[in-house]
């Protein structure tokens, strides 16, 4: 969980609720997959983000992934992606 221990502890997520995830890195690759658990009654958001063949630094890749997760956390519609 973000902010508790491990590699997510140093990330600055700016969304209400919590994040459970698993990071992965290798040369030119950075990833994060997991769940956003909103503070409101909206359902969990499942995500997987992979940056491959990156020429950016690991820090830049991590910052980009953190930005993407923060944007996902701002989704407003609880029906986003749900069948009608």
Structure description:
It is a single chain. The protein has one helix at residues 58-72; strands spanning 18-26, 29-37, 45-51. It has 84 residues and is of the alpha+beta class. The chain has a domain at 18-72. The protein has a three-stranded antiparallel beta sheet, with helices on one face. Strand 2 (29-37) and strand 3 form a beta hairpin. The radius of gyration is 13 Å and the shape is elongated.
What is the strand and helix layout of this fold?
Blueprint: E1 18-26, E2 29-37, E3 45-51, H1 58-72
Antiparallel strand pairs: 1-2, 2-3
Structural class: alpha+beta
Round the Cα radius of gyration to an integer and report it: 13 Å
Strand order, largest beta sheet: 1-2-3
Oligomer: single chain
* Secondary structure: number of strands: 3
Q: What series of H and E elements makes up the topology?
A: EEEH
Provide the low-confidence segments as ranges. none
Mean pLDDT over the residues: 81
Q: Given the C-alpha coordinates, what overall shape results?
A: elongated
Task: Provide a compact summary of the structure.
With 84 residues, this protein is α+β, with helices and mostly antiparallel strands.
């Amino acid at each position: 969980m973000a902010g508790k221990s491990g590699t997510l502890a140093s990330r600055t997520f700016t969304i209400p609720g919590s994040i459970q995830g698993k990071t992965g890195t290798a040369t030119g690759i950075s990833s994060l997959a997991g769940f956003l658990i909103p503070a409101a009654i909206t359902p969990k958001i499942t995500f997987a983000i992979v940056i491959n063949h990156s020429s950016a630094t690991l820090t830049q890749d991590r910052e980009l992934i953190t930005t993407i997760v923060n944007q996902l956390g701002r989704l407003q519609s609880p029906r986003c992606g749900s069948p009608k």
